Amino acid sequence: MIKFSALLLSLLSLPLWANILQEAINNAPKGSKLELPKGVYKGNIVIDKPLIIEGKNHTAVIEGDGKGTVITIKSPFVSLKNLTIQKSGGEHEKVAAGIKLLNVNNCNIINCKLQDVLFGIDVENSSDCNISKNYITSKPFSLGLRGDAIRLWYSNDNILSENHIYKARDFVVWYSHGNLIEKNFGEFGRYSLHFMYTGKNIVKNNKFSHNSVGIFFMYSQDTVAVNNTVKNSLGTTGLGIGMKDCSNYTIEGNKILYCARGLYIDRSPFEPDTVNHINDNYILYNSEGIHFHSLSLNNIFKNNVIKGNIETVVNDSYNMKVTQNRWEGNYWDNYEGFDKNGDGVGDTPYNLYYYADKMWLLNPNVKFFYGSPVISILNFLAKLAPISEPIKLLTDKYPKITEGKRL
After folding, report:
1. 262: three-class secondary structure by DSSP
2. What pLDDT was estimated at residue 6?
């Protein structure tokens, strides 16, 4: 490995407009390492050869001119480490970004700070890259006008780990497969994670808070989401984890708390003869614990803790048969049975009914009063003396009496 810091030190006295960094990149041998001293370097650079560019404690700042992308990588085996990258353009049509990877592989973006950039890290048709331990925040625009913190487009087998995303728009994974997304933290954005037409991704140990939407999977299959925490996804679009037209999923060990909708299921599983396994999750203190939209059959709900939600399960379609999903061994905080033999399982099944009297609660103007004493009394009266025969939403034959392990 050739270190190429001497050239940079000799050129550091030149003004910013001289673009010493691009000159150093152009003159550096392939595979060399540029160690950047503290300072501000002109951005809008292009890296077209294997190279390492490394700063120290983010004191080396690569600053764009407010137009386009700050760093464009067009070569495999490029590494950026410990840098501050700022001031991209604001053009959505150009996907102006802090860092753009184009048709490359085996690149590393490690421990960089990206700020005042429209899009953070844009990964297009690039695979086997490691994007880890970065801090990413967008421009100070309204939520919908910010760019995506991380954007994968036709990019496979990448590692995205321990990134901190703050006040960007989305973290999106489109047409991309086999990626590992773990230990990321995102807050005050729109979509914490948004998947479209993807497969075989692993999503684990992430934490997302105060975003409009937690993790939303769409038109995808063969994916595992385990041990994630999603909380405080509020507002009219707020949901914790959502699946639309998704097949052969495992949703396991996740914690979904304080969301408008905890788990949202829309026409999933989609492919014939497939199932989704939804096991060992904590669905706690949401306005709606589980929300079914459109026909969704053959989901298996097992060993989940469903507690403290204002509405346990919501079905917004008359034609949907929630009973054709499998419910087994879940803990329901409103179960009213007993456990005489002490085996931890209720002696009678848990049955959840939908009363026609409650249809008016779906009116969004009335939802404001959810949880109020008036609504509680009306719900009690509807169960005590329903004006029509209730509809059974689901049956859990073996409901758990206790929650099991605590959070």
Report:
1. strand
2. 45
